[in-house]
Amino acid sequence: MSYRSTRGSMAGYCEIVSCFLGGAEMKTSRWLIPTLSALFLTVTALAADVNLAERIRIQEERLPPIAQMAHQEREQVERWYARQRARTRQEEARERAAQLSLAQRTLWTEFAKMHQDRPYATGYFDAAQYGFPVSYEAAVLRYTMTEEYFVSEMASLLVDKNFRAKLVQIVDEPWQSALLQREARRLLDLMDTLDVELMMDLRQLENHRTEQLNAVAQREKELQEQVRTILDYLKRIEQRQPQLGVVESVGYSPQNGYFCTIEGVDKVLQPGDTAQGIQVVSIDPQKVTFAKNEITWTQGLGAPAQPHWE
After folding, report:
1. N or C: which end of the chain has fewer CB within 10 A?
2. Closest CA to 286 of 20, 12, 3, 9
């Protein structure tokens, strides 16, 4: 990413704009581009003949919406994170629960219900066999439903702190049966493995969340700096006669090529863009070529504007 400017004070503006146009160092969230960037494109496309005080007012009014949209983006990231965190816990727990046999899942689920006053629902799947003929398809369906039910129930138990405490109690109580203590230890080992996997997955998810929030904050900061730089520029030229058409700066973005800023035009221009009825034909590091009414001319960086701008 590079730029050239006729004034040192425009350097920050050019750098920000170059980032916006796709500079190599720019990283943004997938949510922020269609919102805050759209705000940039819409509001900066101002006609050069708008009253200078009005242009300053418009730029000043851009700052609150930028902060508001960044706030909305952060809330969206947090909602995404909460959903992904819950989904990750559920998927990891179900994967571990599926490693147990159906008999083990059934027994531990019934055991948990007896000790934790969990609602009873397991009898529903076998009710169809009383007084009704059972087809092969119905038997397979009932088995599949039972399998799914106990996988979900066991997955919930594997991340249940109260259930873990009960298992630890069983292991520590000397009067418990050896069989129950052995199975409780096995289940605790499975829960320990699940905890390690969940910790790693959730840490990775947390890192991704942090990256997204940092991208939102960085983008908000860049857009605010861009607005403040434009405001500084407009307030400086407020003290003198504007020089419409002077090539203020030239910048380069690896993804989008060269761009330029023209004094009196509050938007970034690339080859093919038009301002004040004048089209930008090409942009080089030190000069810009324009065309109007089939007339083509070139202006150097900072050189006086040609009469065609009048």
Report:
1. C
2. 3
Q: Measure the CA–CA gap between 282 and 113, rounded to whole angstroms.
A: 75
d(CA 91, CA 205): 14
Rounded CA separation 106/295 (Å)? 85
CA distance 173 to 167: 10
Match 């605010």 to its residue by tokens: 224
**Other C-beta atoms within 10 Å of 244: how many?**
16
Rounded to 10°, the helix 63-97/178-237 angle is: 160
d(CA 308, CA 310): 6
Distance CA 166, CA 182 (A): 14
Distance, CA of 67 to chain centre: 16
Distance of alpha carbon 157 from alpha carbon 160, whole angstroms? 5
Q: Which residues of the chain form beta strands (DSSP E)?
A: 2-5, 247-253, 257-262, 268-269, 274-275, 278-283, 287-292, 295-300
Tokens of 74: 């952060």
Q: How far is 60 from 65, CA to CA, in rounded Å?
A: 10
Pairing of strands 257-262, 2-5: unpaired
Give me the helix-helix angle, 178-237 and 136-158, nearest 10°: 70
Q: What is the chain's Cα-based Rg? A: 33
Q: Are 198 and 92 in contact (CB under 8 A)?
A: yes
What pLDDT digit, counting tens, does each position of 216-263 carry? 998 888 888 878 877 877 777 666 666 788 888 788 777 778 888 888
Distance of CA 286 to the CA centre of its chain: 38
Q: Are 31 and 279 in contact (CB under 8 A)?
A: no
Residues 130-143 have pLDDT tens digits of 455 567 777 777 77
Q: Closest Cα to residue 207, out of 196, 218, 199, 217?
A: 199
Report yes or no: 21 and 259 within 8 Å, Cβ to Cβ.
yes
